[in-house]
Write a structure and sequence with these properties.
By secondary structure, the chain is of the alpha/beta class. 46% of the residues are buried.
């Protein structure tokens, strides 16, 4: 996707072919800054501190983290240490475990001397595959937007509500929830996106709004509490979010607040779709209750960061000193509230049979 008209991915290699470059997402939307990752510790820090975030991009960064580790030391013990370090950076997005297992399966059988080249090769493939999967999610999901446009006799733009950032910035390119939106925009289907701000870290207000703006997609930022109201007004045709982990039975973990949107969508007959690539499905669990939910620093709730009129980036308190705060990162939307899953292989029901129909190799 484009930044000031220049095409970018969210992760790429520097000219030396080894250093990993990322966009520092903690500085957006106020500053566009790229960072170099030179070690596995840098990669782990980037994921933990959310310089990179979003399930597919966490997986892609972890795969390059393994490359940086084996470049320093390609022994079995160093490979295992890198796996362990990266795996514990964030708990909910299952793409992290998927990418690390994949890298380990490729590298473990090889002689240490062959591991560096093989690691960079596989990490690049993981990134390219992510781009292809997200584009395919867009190609399948655009039909839902076209159908919604037909339902209003093509008289007005299709209104889509999204939560958090499941956009280009959360993947290597295209995004998951946003891929159908970008494809619709490309195909000249008029769309307007309601962007939930997504407290506490404001991935909607800061990241989704920024990337939609960079791409010229009409959008409006709303506070998280406004979603139910705009649905009641008939101003939402479709809800599309991403997911950090979807169980084999279709329960969907996504950014905290997604469940409330799904409840409001059901009450207002608004279809609720979730965009996801195959590596976001956790075939080892069926119940959403088994998904580990990240709990983050309460300071993210008790304070807020923004840019002052003088152009300074500042963090201010929004609660009285001494008030306790809880910071749950994700919630689980039960499969029964999900209208459908938009995957790179097509759209299916959020059920075991629906998922197995598209991924029969997991039967
Ligand atoms: O805490 P984050 O910013 O990593 O959470 C991201 C989300 O919840 C996204 O919606 C999810 O990863 C899907 S991304 C394509």
């Amino acid at each position: 996707m484009n930044v000031d008209g220049v095409p970018f991915r969210t992760i790429w290699l520097a000219e030396n072919g080894e250093t990993v470059e990322i966009i520092d997402q903690t500085r957006l939307p106020h500053e566009f800054i790229t960072l170099s990752l030179n070690s596995v510790a840098d990669a782990a820090h980037a994921i933990r501190s959310m310089q990179v975030r979003g399930a597919p991009l966490i997986g892609a960064t972890a795969s390059y983290g393994v490359c940086l580790a084996v470049r320093e030391d390609a022994s079995d013990s160093a490979l295992q240490a890198a796996y362990d370090l990266l795996l514990q950076t964030r708990p909910t997005a299952v793409n992290l475990r998927w990418a690390l297992d994949d890298m380990k399966a490729v590298l473990e059988p090889l002689a240490a001397s062959d591991r560096v080249v093989a690691a960079y090769h596989r990490a690049a493939e993981i990134c390219d595959e992510d781009v292809a999967m997200c584009r395919a999610i867009g190609d399948h999901g655009v039909q839902l937007i076209r159908d919604a446009w037909d339902r209003v006799d093509r008289t007005r733009p299709v209104n889509i509500l999204t939560h958090c950032n499941a956009g280009w910035l959360a993947t290597v390119d295209w995004g998951t929830a946003t891929a159908p939106i970008y494809v619709a925009h490309e195909q000249k289907i008029p769309v307007h996106v309601w962007v939930d701000e997504t407290r506490p870290r404001n991935q909607g207000a800061g990241l989704t709004a920024w990337e939609l703006g960079q791409h010229g997609v009409p959008h409006t930022v709303i506070v998280d509490n406004a979603g139910g109201h705009v649905m009641q007004q008939g101003d939402v045709d479709l809800l599309i979010t991403g997911t950090d982990r979807t169980t084999a039975a279709g329960d969907v973990a996504n950014k905290i607040g997604t469940y409330l949107k799904a409840l409001a969508a059901r009450d207002n007959d608004v279809p609720f779709y979730v965009g996801l690539p195959g590596p976001t499905i956790d075939w080892m669990i069926s119940s959403g209750r088994d998904i580990p939910i990240e709990e983050r620093d309460p300071a993210e709730v008790t304070s807020i960061t923004g840019r002052t009129a003088q152009g300074m980036i500042e963090t201010v308190s929004v609660t009285p000193p001494g008030s306790a705060a809880a910071n749950y990162g994700f919630d689980v939307t039960p499969a029964r509230l999900v209208t459908g899953l938009i995957t790179e292989r097509g759209i299916c029901e959020a059920t075991t049979e629906g998922l197995l129909g598209l991924y029969p190799e997991n039967r």
